[in-house]
Amino acid sequence: xxxxxxxxxxxxxxxxxxxxxxxxxxxxxxxxxxxxxxxxxxxxxxxxxxxxxxxxxxxxxxxxxxxxxxxxxxxxxxxxxxxxxxxxxxxxxxxxxxxxxxxxxxxxxxxxxxxxxxxxxxxxxxxxxxxxxxxxxxxxxxxxxxxxxxxxxxxxxxxxxxxxxxxxxxxxxxxxxxxxxxxxxxxxxxxxxxxxxxxxxxxxxxxxxxxxxxxxxxxxxxxxxxxxxxxxxxxxxxxxxxxxxxxxxxxxxxxxxxxxxxxxxxxxxxxxxxxxxxxxxxxxxxxxxxxxxxxxxxxxxxxxxxxxxxxxxxxxxxxxx
Amino acid sequence: xxxxxxxxxxxxxxxxxxxxxxxxxxxxxxxxxxxxxxxxxxxxxxxxxxxxxxxxxxxxxxxxxxxxxxxxxxxxxxxxxxxxxxxxxxxxxxxxxxxxxxxxxxxxxxxxxxxxxxxxxxxxxxxxxxxxxxxxxxxxxxxxxxxxxxxxxxxxxxxxxxxxxxxxxxxxxxxxxxxxxxxxxxxxxxxxxxxxxxxxxxxxxxxxxxxxxxxxxxxxxxxxxxxxxxxxxxxxxxxxxxxxxxxxxxxxxxxxxxxxxxxxxxxxxxxxxxxxxxxxxxxxxxxxxxxxxxxxxxxxxx
Amino acid sequence: xxxxxxxxxxxxxxxxxxxxxxxxxxxxxxxxxxxxxxxxxxxxxxxxxxxxxxxxxxxxxxxxxxxxxxxxxxxxxxxxxxxxxxxxxxxxxxxxxxxxxxxxxxxxxxxxxxxxxxxxxxxxxxxxxxxxxxxxxxxxxxxxxxxxxxxxxxxxxxxxxxxxxxxxxxxxxxxxxxxxxxxxxxxxxxxxxxxxxxxxxxxxxxxxxxxxxxxxxxxxxxxxxxxxxxxxxxxxxxxxxxxxxxxxxxxxxxxxxxxxxxxxxxxxxxxxxxxxxxxxxxxxxxxxxxxxxxxxxxxxxxxxxxx
Lengths: 321, 302, 307
Prior knowledge:
Strand order of the largest sheet of chain A: 5-6-7-3-8-9
Distance between the termini of chain A: 37 Å
Oligomer: heterotrimer
CATH superfamily of the largest domain in chain A: P-loop containing nucleotide triphosphate hydrolases
Number of strands of chain B: 0
Largest sheet of chain A: 6 strands, mixed
CATH architecture of the largest domain in chain A: 3-Layer(aba) Sandwich
Shape of chain B: globular
Helix content of chain B: over 70%
Structural class of chain B: mainly alpha
């Protein structure tokens, strides 16, 4: 694994009696990384600690080689991070261009650079003429783009994105995911993406971090975690499923019924599904789907947070305050 | 020409970030721009002040031209008389300025409360502090930016008109005598204006930082100032004593102004100038404490 | 009853802004997904169904009644609004019990029903705390509890999954299945299409205030015959397969994925292709590893219909 972007050692954060983070130690690799966990797992606390918006009770969190709990480092590190908060947070009566320009200049861009960058990032997020309108007239989708644009204006190497697809309709969500995918995989940004939609993380991230009850309970590569086991297939049949089943069993394969589909166990040395197609040809049925069984990120996640108990672990704000 | 295509959608930034940008100024500029977007309140709030200022300018101008006409051609003892006359006039101008300041002060308060009360409250309401403090912006710079924004409106409402009146007096007075002989009055009016405006600015910001609604902050800051004023008048009336006027911010400011401009509006004041200054310092200390504490929380428990 | 919601030429304007325009739709019992882009009119439609808004034109019948200001109907309807409508000073239990009192239950029963509903949304642990301290997900679930506590015949839920974490999402989807199995009809809106599809095949798709499609997802896909079906194969020998597929006259186009292992076939006759494939693949020893015809998903159908 290459040099970690974020290195966390024994990080503890307590709010009064409640421990929001309990001795977290984890290395976050470069590239797009998903941060998952039930509400109250400590994700937001972690992000705020990384930005220096919270002081750790114990331990340290290093981001891009800086320690945000030190004042000098905090200012330095914030130049290299772009943060897209979850809430609305756009000031009314400000136009899109004004807002991004001002925030860019606050980060240290000169006036000219700030204007040029503003238009470039607004082009990138495809916010067209709307950029000259006040942000309070924006739709949810435009607001989310706007928030991404302001996080990108100073071209940071690290992006912290908190629920970027919240409230978006299917089209808006896909476009936002395409942007995040491009940033992480083509533009080489290091992304920490918080989302409740495991699907979003599966599409855009190479790596995930699962948190629960203030601890990191699982980390790993998405592709490895959801790898196909290569041994079983889900087969969707259009035609006489029972006949196909009989034929498959006759050729020595294990078959189970899964609703209207068949779960087929291949032999250990099988590299492809030729046996299944052969059986289908013999049985004279059509196949509309042949998919290798792989564990979804959802299963990985539920396993990691201990499935059903998860809901009861959520804490109210009062407990956290 | 060599053919090339530039289809990359995202372009990295190649320039450099300034290490010490004047962030407070950037923030203030943005704040002022946004506040001035709504034209009607600006018109309503500033036009009375503008009218008062223009009237004052004319009055000062007329005083000098009249004096010149009346005195006619100067020779002998008449010349000496004219000098005394003009000197009296110059004193009058100073008093005029002070009167203007004194009369417009409550209006300036409303202007600043109007523009200032949203400054921090609105940021808290929408959560914009997350956008600001995730950037290399220190709390001091944030406070500075907000302070400059509110100060600017006070400056426009109070200090600028004073300077205008002084300028008119300078040009209208014979041989720049106003500038030569009463230059300290110009300085004093700037000083007094800045003192008043900055005190109100920090006070309004402190109230603004306590709520997340602009209207609450507006009602709060105006309410406190006018409420204490009413209270002091009531107490003075009941006790038949002028000392409760120490509660009245306007009275304290007047007291300081009297000393600065060397004029006396009310003889035998119950409060000493030291006491008035102490009250103003107290307002500063409390407001600064409140506002810095609240901003610290905006950054850390944002 | 075969139709629980019947709308005829339903329209609603907000001043000059159109909320819903000429919507005619019949909704059958069971779970129905109401989908559409932001601003399509989903919330407007739902508010008219629960009688919160009066139609500007047209008629709507819910469970055989006109819902506007119809108190009798309210006891059979559950509504989970999108707006964050909770009293911060009340506890979750107090709030739901209060809603039940409003619905006409006696104090004792209201409390029991509140308790039971909150148990079903997994809020038993925190139900006696103030709502002001709840997280977004908890508030969402409290609103849901309020809408199911009186065991309505029809539950109308506007984006009930928004703000929920993955575990809570799963539980809520499960709860909907249980309710449906017990005979409650559910109309829910959501932007997360694969979750809707995991619940139901029956959808109503609206766009710009108008009905764009209704029915089950496969049926709707079949109606879109002008758009060729897309099949993606991953195989050891994709080019040999492609060569053979070229001879089929219902195949419109063939393309390879960048890694050279995938083959996308667009066809006007999906069944024909799927019948042809097994024999041909075995004959060619093409080494197919996977076969998917993903464009029959709700996501794909949505994309085809909403550009």
